[in-house]
Design goal:
alpha+beta; 8-stranded mixed β-sheet; 6-stranded mixed β-sheet; 9 helices
Length: 322
């Protein structure tokens, strides 16, 4: 199926992530996450609505601005003309980091042909392992249930480096206390982050980033967005729903999803016709944040195209409205 090859949607998407980043960056360090998220979502929606596509949001996001300000599952996006596509977006990955004045907040968006993205709508959390192209062929479903030391030993053997040199990105959450202890006991390094599930996946698939794997439980929307980038870049991912309470378990079961099923990135996004874009909002290890200077601004973005495995780094200069 070749629905998207006649047009490079990565350039359309990066305009949307740039618009979100430019709006969100004004709220850095202001301790107003809801206001930042509202501004970023509105800016992103405005740009996406002008793209010639029949788009549909696959999974929604949780927003400090409340559900009325979020992208919703099934929401129509684009002009309604052009190819039918699935979209996943996060106007600010790391919203609270941004509001508190920390770095590493990014804006992301991805599209693929309609019907190719897995959409477990009632689910909130997913257990994940993400690796880059150098480990992609070695990642097996057993890794998700195996002790961390076993997976790390496998990774070290394939990467031809000692276990003690591996760096694993983990969200800093109480649910990961045992995982972090296992990684440290195995002798590997843990890179903890209070937020930034998507950023962690991007670091894991980026050569030279200093991160070898992402492990642990994060959001389902973030996992699906990450899967788009992972497929486009030739990395690998294992994911499985990981409900955190009884209500989530019951909602997943009622919707007919198998909570214990392990999925690969290829199953999460069943197409290589993927376009992904990310723009830095505040300075991070992968992308520089927005720089403002009067009525000018500079942004740093990256795009991925799955069909060609092309990664582009973009520095844009923007003339801002008064």
């Amino acid at each position: 199926m070749a629905l998207l090859l006649s047009r490079n949607f990565a350039l359309d998407l990066v305009r949307a992530t740039e618009a979100a980043a430019l709006s969100a960056g004004r709220w850095m360090g202001m301790n107003q996450p809801a206001a930042a998220d509202r501004a970023a979502n509105a800016a992103m929606l405005n740009l996406l609505s002008h793209i010639e596509m029949d788009g549909r949001i696959v999974v929604g996001e949780r927003s400090p601005a409340g559900p009325e300000n979020c992208f919703r599952p099934g929401q129509a996006i684009g002009t309604g003309n052009g190819p039918a596509v699935d979209l996943v977006v996060d106007a600010i990955d790391g919203c609270r980091l941004l509001a508190q004045g920390y770095g590493a907040a990014i804006s992301v968006a991805a599209i693929a042909p309609r019907g190719t993205m897995w959409a477990p709508t009632p689910a909130v959390y997913m257990d994940k392992i993400v690796v880059g192209a150098d480990l992609a062929l070695a990642l097996a479903s057993e890794c998700l249930d195996a002790p961390a030391a076993w997976t790390l030993a496998l990774a070290a053997r394939v990467k031809k480096k000692p276990v003690r040199d591996l760096v694993v990105y983990v969200l800093n959450r109480p649910r990961h206390d045992d995982l972090v202890a296992e990684i440290r006991a195995a002798g590997s390094h843990v890179l903890l982050s209070p937020e930034g599930d998507i950023l962690g996946a991007l670091l894991a698939i980026t050569p030279g980033s200093g991160v070898d794997l992402l492990m642990g439980t994060g959001g389902v929307p973030e996992g699906l967005i990450a899967a788009c980038a992972i497929r486009a870049a030739g990395g690998a991912m294992l994911g499985r729903l990981d409900p955190q309470n009884q209500a989530e378990k019951e909602a997943i079961a009622a919707a007919g999803f198998e909570a214990r099923r392990i999925l690969t990135a290829d199953q999460l996004v069943a197409s290589r016709e993927i376009f992904f874009a990310a723009t830095g909002i505040s300075d991070g290890p992968l992308l520089q944040g927005v720089r403002y200077a009067g009525n000018h601004a500079t942004s740093n973005s990256m795009t991925l195209r799955g069909e060609t495995r092309t990664r582009r780094t973009i520095i844009s200069e923007h003339l801002l409205e008064d």
